[in-house]
């Protein structure tokens, strides 16, 4: 006889497997898509952020000149989402054919491509918050510089950030929320941090972060916390 607890565990396991499969499929699809835009002229492929990225990449290789992609628009227009696509495109293209670096003990692990992509959740935890117009609104601007070697391989990247909306740390409108990181910490997913910071798991204990909402429907704070960590 299966107990109630067993049934729950099976459902939870299935849920996790589904999620993993979904992620893997999405990643494969994206890599395939990136390849179809590789080296095409803008009129040869349907309009796509990958096409813009590839044009910049090809111009850089042929003209030997720095290229910029300016991503602008009102709140919720898709700047953050598209910036991630651009970075992912460069990471996918620059990793094609290249061999992965051997892991060095004591150094940060993962290829440079992975490291650049993995920087995002951390930046967003400290710089994004729910606003009336966007559940994941960036309250900062960023200047991302990606350096390539002479053969077009990624060599390094740095990100400059500016203009954090400081007032949000102490005040939020009723339909808004402070920076994600506060609520991620208070999920209690990392008990050692609760202890080190001497905080509770109830945001309402802290008026500074609970003047507005404390949960966002479209955001799973525990999952985001794992990505940040
Ligand atoms: N190309 C797209 N296709 C479908 N949905 C999109 C697309 N671009 C953006 N969105 C949706 O719009 C939401 C807001 O996008 P995003 O966070 O990129 O906006 P933003 O321009 O960075 O805004 P802000 O200035 O507030 O930071 C995303 O969470 C996503 O759900
Ligand atoms: Mg944004």
TrEMBL record:
The keyword Nucleotide-binding applies. Residues 1-229 form the Myosin motor domain. PROSITE patterns: MYOSIN_MOTOR. ATP binds at residues 73-80. GO terms for biological process: actin filament organization. This is Myosin heavy chain, fast skeletal muscle-like. GO terms for cellular component: cytoplasm; membrane; myosin complex. Keywords: Actin-binding, ATP-binding, Coiled coil, Motor protein, Myosin, Nucleotide-binding. InterPro entries: Kinesin_motor_dom_sf, Myosin_head_motor_dom-like, P-loop_NTPase. PANTHER family: MYOSIN, MYOSIN-11. It holds the Pfam family Myosin_head. The gene is LOC102206437. GO terms for molecular function: actin filament binding; ATP binding; microfilament motor activity. Belongs to the TRAFAC class myosin-kinesin ATPase superfamily. Myosin family. The lineage of its organism: Eukaryota, Metazoa, Chordata, Craniata, Vertebrata. It comes from Pundamilia nyererei.
């Amino acid at each position: 006889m299966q107990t109630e607890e067993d049934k729950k565990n099976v459902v939870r396991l299935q849920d996790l497997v589904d999620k993993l499969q979904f992620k893997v499929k999405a990643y494969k699809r994206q890599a395939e898509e990136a390849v179809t835009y590789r080296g095409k002229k803008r009129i040869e492929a349907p309009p796509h952020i990958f096409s813009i990225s590839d044009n910049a990449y090809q111009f850089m290789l042929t003209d030997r000149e720095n290229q910029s992609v300016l991503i602008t628009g009102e709140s919720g227009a898709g700047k953050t989402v598209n910036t991630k696509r651009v970075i992912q495109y460069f990471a996918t293209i620059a990793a094609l054919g290249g061999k992965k670096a051997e892991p060095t003990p004591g150094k940060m692990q993962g290829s440079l491509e992975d490291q650049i992509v993995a920087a995002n959740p951390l930046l967003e935890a400290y710089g994004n918050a729910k606003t009336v117009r966007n559940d994941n609104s960036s309250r900062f601007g960023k200047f991302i510089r990606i350096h390539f070697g002479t053969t077009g391989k990624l060599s390094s990247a740095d990100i400059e950030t500016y203009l954090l909306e400081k007032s949000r740390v102490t005040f939020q409108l009723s339909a808004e929320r402070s920076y994600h990181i506060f609520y991620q910490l208070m999920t209690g997913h990392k008990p050692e941090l609760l202890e080190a910071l001497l905080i509770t798991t109830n945001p309402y204990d802290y008026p500074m972060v609970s003047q507005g909402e404390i949960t966002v429907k479209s955001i799973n704070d525990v999952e985001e916390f794992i990505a940040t960590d």
